[in-house]
Every structure is written in structure tokens, then in C-alpha cells.
């Protein structure tokens, strides 16, 4: 005899819905357990707003301000480029930084997830951003390796001329070491990244301030440096190439369009004032870059070197300039250790962004995503590393590293930042704020 159901068909539907909900709840709990097992502190928010600001500012400072910003200042004539950079930073880059941080916090899903919310087709743009940061990181690890090599050399007080350095295998060896070192904080989680940042950021600022005071008191090139960095002609401000480079640098140095802010933003607490936090990050970021200029150029001018040396400025010119001044040993040790710490923090941020992106594809565990990222970066970074060895790999007449930097540092970063901001604004209309 068929069992009596008091509500007939409705009872069957209700029972079926209950079973489906139970199954869905079980799957959700299983997915959460699996994710937590693979990631550890992956979804953990920053310990405090201060931890978030310090960690993000430390990641943003990096070589984008200590290496790239000074050499662009030298190439673009100083004062005019500095004014254009500050205008682009405040008017364009800062608002987009707030948009990216908000999107990361709102979606809690990193680069791919943030763009996926904007629509089925928009998710493909997330892959473009992920590929961009992958390209930047591939040569950024090489540059960080240079700072590591020169930091070690500084203890001996005998800097190897950059021409001699690039004829050996130092660039390749240092690249491999930095790639391995940068993985350690990622395996330890967000808390380890906070601790690294709380060491590197204050150390860098103290070292820059100390050497700046020394340059002001002792360097013969201080006056010439101030004139170079603050003086400009009206015609220079009408040069479109100056504004193009300045816009690209403002995006590059504040990590716009590169996925960093989406990744770090996913760990931000719901009550954090993002415009204020982004403003502080931009202020510290710009201050570090400008300070680096005032620290470096007095030594460059005092030694009679050409400020328009290009990407090799701090490695080809600075060691010789430091070796010729009183207390050059102390200055050299302090400066290159600070450079390495700042660059290393940015490498950790880059790796985290890439690993989060791979994990967001849902093809593997978080730790396996780390292994995939390291393997891919090893393959992609080798040409840049080898372009500054005896092999001298090049694309046309330009070293591979320089060609990749010129491609990604302006055109692609500007494109990714502006298009991405429009898509993320659209995504914001389709996702509720985080709890």
C-alpha cells in the first residue's frame, strides 16, 4: 500500500527541495574544507588597516620607484616629468586604485573572479591582466637579483663594474635564488607577508632619509640635483611623450592594471576606508620615488655621470659614484640592502597575485598553483636573465629585459588599467558588499 502523503505532490516537491538543499550544503562545506586545507590563511583579512596599508605600500614601492622612476626622471629631463607624474598619479591613477581595491574586497575572488562578475566575456580580460603581471614579474625577478648581487658586493666595498657583471653568469644565478626566496612568505600565508612588509618598508624609508641627509650635507652634487629635479621649461610640459611616460609610471608604480590591488584588496576588512587607505599608499609611494631621486642624483652629478643613462642607471653609475665619496662603504651597504628589501617585497606581491590567479582557475590546489607559477616564471624569466650575461640575448638591438620593460611599463599597463577600471565598475553593480 502506498504511503499516505498529507500534501500530495506538494509534499514530494518539498521533500525533494530539502534533499537538494542538504546536498548543496554538504558540497559547500566540503568545498570550504578542501579550500581551507589547501590554502591555510588564504581568505584571512589583514590583521588591521595599518597592516593592509603597510603591506600594500611596501609592495608598491619596490623597484618601480627606486629603479624605474629615477632613470625615467633622468631620461625625461627631471622637473617636467616629476610634475606630469604627480598630476597623473592624483588625477588618474589614485581613483583607479580605489576602484581596484573596492572590486577586490567586494568579490573576494582575486583577479579572475573580479572580472568574471562583470559578465561572461569580461572574465577573459582577467587572463590578460594575469598575463601582464606575469610578464612584468618575469624580468622584475632579474632586476631584484641584481640588487641582491650588489647588496652582497657592498659588504666587500668593491663593486663589480656593471659591464663586467653582465658578462658573467651573476644575473642568472641571482635570478634563480630570488625566485626561490620569494616563495617562502607565500607558503607561510598572509601573516608572513605582513611581517616581511613591517620590516622592509620602515627600513627602506629610514635608509633613504639617512642617505638623503648625508647627500645634503656632504655631496657636491646636491645643488645641481635640486635644480634638475625642480626646474623645467614650459615647452617640456607640452611634450606628449613626457605625459605618456608619466602616466605609465604612475600606473606602474601604484600597481594599477596589474592585479596587485585586486589581490591585496580581497583581504581588506569591510569597514576599511578605501579612499583614505589608497591616498596614504599613493603618498608613501610617490614620496619614496621622489626621495630616491633626491638621494641618487647628488651622487650621479658629483661623479660627473650622465643622468640619462637609462635602465642601468643605479647599477652602472651609482656604485662608481658611491666609491668616490667619504663613507661610501656605509652608503653602499645601506642603499643596496634597502633596494633589495624593497624589490623583494614587490616580488612576493607579484607571486601572490599570479598564484591567486592560477588557483582562481580551479584547476589545482593552492600549493600546486605555487609550483606552476614558479615553473612558468623560471621559463619566462630566463631570456631576460640571459640578456645580461655573456650570451647577450636580444630582440633586435635591444636586450630582452629592456624590450619587455618598455612594452609592459607604459602601453600595456595603461591599457589594462583604464579598460579594467571600466569593467570593474560594471562588476560592482552585480555583487553585494562583503560581510
TrEMBL record:
Compartments reported by the entry: Membrane
Cellular-component GO terms for this entry: membrane
InterPro entries according to UniProt: Na/ntran_symport (IPR000175), SNS_sf (IPR037272), YocR/YhdH-like (IPR047218)
The entry's keywords: Membrane, Transmembrane, Transmembrane helix, Transport
Domain of life, source organism: Bacteria
Segment forming the signal sequence: none
Residue ranges of the TM segments: 51-69, 81-103, 124-148, 168-189, 196-217, 246-265, 277-301, 327-349, 369-387, 407-425
Membrane topology recorded in Swiss-Prot or TrEMBL: Multi-pass membrane protein
UniProt main location, coarse: membrane
Record's protein name: Sodium-dependent transporter
Organism field: Henriciella barbarensis
Amino acid at each position: 500500500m502506498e504511503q499516505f502523503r498529507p500534501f500530495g505532490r506538494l509534499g514530494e516537491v518539498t521533500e525533494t527541495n530539502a534533499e537538494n538543499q542538504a546536498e548543496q550544503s554538504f558540497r559547500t562545506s566540503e568545498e570550504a574544507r578542501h579550500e581551507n586545507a589547501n590554502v591555510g590563511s588564504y581568505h584571512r583579512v589583514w590583521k588591521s588597516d595599518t597592516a593592509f596599508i603597510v603591506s600594500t605600500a611596501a609592495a608598491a614601492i619596490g623597484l618601480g620607484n627606486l629603479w624605474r622612476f629615477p632613470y625615467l626622471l633622468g631620461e625625461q629631463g627631471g622637473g617636467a616629468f616629476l610634475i606630469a607624474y604627480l598630476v597623473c598619479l592624483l588625477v588618474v591613477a589614485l581613483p583607479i586604485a580605489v576602484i581596484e581595491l573596492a572590486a577586490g574586497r567586494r568579490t573576494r575572488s582575486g583577479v579572475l573572479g573580479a572580472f568574471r562578475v562583470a559578465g561572461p566575456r569580461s572574465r577573459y580580460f582577467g587572463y590578460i591582466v594575469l598575463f601582464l603581471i606575469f610578464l612584468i614579474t618575469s624580468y622584475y625577478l632579474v632586476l631584484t637579483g641584481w640588487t641582491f648581487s650588489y647588496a652582497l658586493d657592498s659588504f666587500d666595498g668593491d663593486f663589480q663594474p656593471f659591464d663586467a657583471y653582465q658578462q658573467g653568469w651573476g644575473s642568472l644565478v641571482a635570478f634563480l635564488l630570488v625566485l626561490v626566496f620569494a616563495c617562502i612568505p607565500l607558503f607561510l600565508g598572509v601573516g608572513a607577508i605582513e611581517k616581511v612588509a613591517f620590516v622592509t618598508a620602515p627600513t627602506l624609508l629610514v635608509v633613504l632619509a639617512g642617505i638623503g641627509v648625508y647627500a645634503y650635507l656632504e655631496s657636491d652634487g646636491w645643488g645641481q640635483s635640486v635644480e634638475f629635479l625642480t626646474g623645467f621649461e614650459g615647452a617640456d610640459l607640452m611634450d606628449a611623450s613626457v605625459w605618456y611616460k608619466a602616466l605609465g609610471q604612475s600606473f606602474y608604480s601604484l600597481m594599477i592594471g596589474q592585479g596587485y590591488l585586486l589581490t591585496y584588496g580581497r583581504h581588506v576588512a569591510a569597514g576599511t576606508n578605501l579612499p583614505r587607505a589608497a591616498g596614504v599608499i599613493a603618498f608613501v609611494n610617490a614620496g619614496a620615488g621622489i626621495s630616491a631621486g633626491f638621494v641618487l642624483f647628488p651622487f650621479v652629478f658629483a661623479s660627473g655621470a650622465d643622468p640619462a643613462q637609462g635602465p642601468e642607471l643605479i647599477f652602472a653609475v651609482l656604485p662608481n659614484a658611491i666609491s668616490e665619496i667619504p663613507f661610501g662603504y656605509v652608503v653602499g651597504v645601506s642603499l643596496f640592502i634597502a633596494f633589495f628589501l624593497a624589490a623583494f617585497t614587490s616580488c612576493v606581491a607579484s607571486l601572490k597575485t599570479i598564484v591567486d590567479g592560477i588557483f582562481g582557475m580551479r584547476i589545482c590546489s593552492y600549493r600546486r598553483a605555487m609550483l606552476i607559477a614558479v615553473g612558468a616564471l623560471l621559463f619566462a624569466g630566463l631570456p631576460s636573465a640571459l640578456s645580461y650575461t655573456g650570451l647577450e640575448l636580444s630582440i633586435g638591438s635591444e636586450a630582452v629585459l629592456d624590450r619587455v620593460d618598455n612594452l609592459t611599463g607604459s602601453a600595456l599597463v595603461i591599457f589594462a588599467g583604464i579598460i579594467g577600471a571600466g569593467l570593474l565598475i560594471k562588476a560592482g553593480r552585480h555583487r553585494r558588499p562583503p560581510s
